[in-house]
Amino acid sequence: MSSAKSRGALLQELEEALRRSSAQGVLYGQTVANVAGISGSDLECIDIVLLEGRVTAGRLAEVTGLTTGAITGVVDRLEKAGYVRRERDESDRRKVFISVVPEAVEKIGQYYVPLQQAMQKVFSGYSEDELRLLLRFTNDGYKGVLGATGALKVVIDTPPEQRANLKMSPKSRR
């Protein structure tokens, strides 16, 4: 028998490592959100707006999987806290964009410096080819999570009394 791990064992180990990393990332973000005085999901919405530049409420709902009504609540809270602002489109005054307030978001960003420094140290141990592989893996993983989120949205959109009839793989549950 080979001392090398089987593909199945490696995949299991990788899944567990990703779950640990994901959980720790969520907990780190929640800690930052607590310090900032907002919810963890509101903090993630700020990050999405940062990554996309500026977004409409519809786009934010699409990316997060939240309803437009829920997004209105998120934006109201974040605007009241001073983290985002609504901006009317110059060419179509009916269209409203959500953008971050840079000075306010910079204050939140300071709490991510230790994490960024830790990750830079980790990344320094990889070659450019390995970094390209990690980037491909991360981007592909993101697409996978988007697909899984879409599939889960079907469950959410199904009345509770009909959810038992939906087929989900037991391996997809934690």
TrEMBL record:
InterPro entries: HTH_MarR-typ, MarR/SlyA-like, WH-like_DNA-bd_sf, WH_DNA-bd_sf. One of its GO terms (molecular function) is DNA-binding transcription factor activity. It comes from the Bacteria. Gene3D superfamilies: Winged helix-like DNA-binding domain superfamily/Winged helix DNA-binding domain (1.10.10.10). GO terms for biological process: response to stress. Residues 7-143 form the HTH marR-type domain. PANTHER family: TRANSCRIPTIONAL REGULATOR, MARR FAMILY, TRANSCRIPTIONAL REGULATORY PROTEIN. This is MarR family transcriptional regulator. It comes from Bradyrhizobium septentrionale.
